[in-house]
Amino acid sequence: MTSSEKSKKNNNINLETDLPLSQKDFTAMRKKPFEKEQNLEDYFDFLEEIGAFESKKVKTKFYDAEFEL
User: Fold this and answer.
1) Do 15 and 21 touch, CB atoms closer than 8 A?
2) CA-to-CA distance for 11 and 5, rounded, in angstroms?
3) Chain centroid offset of residue 28 CA
4) Rounded Cα gap, residues 47 and 12, in angstroms
5) What's the alpha-carbon Rg for the chain, to the nearest Å?
6) Phi-psi category of 45—alpha, beta or left, where left has phi over 0 and alpha has psi -120 to 50?
7) Quick one: pLDDT at residue 17?
8) N or C end: fewer C-beta atoms under 10 angstroms in the chain?
9) How far apart (Å, rounded) are the C-alpha atoms in residues 38 and 11?
10) What is the SS3 assignment for the chain?
C-alpha cells in the first residue's frame, strides 16, 4: 500500500492525537453549552440608539436581461 493510498483510507481526525490541544481545551469541549436564556432587549435598544431601523429602504430594480458569470 502506497502512502497516498494510506492517506485516502484514513481521513478521520483523532482529536486526542492529531491536533495540538491541551487538557484545558478538552475540558472546555466537553462542557455543555451555556443554557441561560438570552436577553436581546439590550441589543435591540442599541440598534435603535444607532438608528439601525431608520435606514432608507432601497427600491428593488428588476432587469429583463439574463446575466452569466
Assistant:
1) yes
2) 11
3) 18
4) 43
5) 26
6) alpha
7) 77
8) C
9) 38
10) CCHHHHHHHCCCCCCCCCCCCCHHHHHHHHCCCCCCCCCCHHHHHHHHHCCHHHCCCCCCCCCCCCCCC
Contact present, 46 and 40 (Cβ < 8 Å): no
CB 53 within 8 A of CB 47: yes
Distance CA 59, CA 6 (A): 56
pLDDT at 63 over 90: no
Q: Can you tell me which residue has the cell 451555556?
A: 34
Please tell me the distance from the alpha carbon of residue 20 to that of residue 28, in angstroms, as a whole number. 15
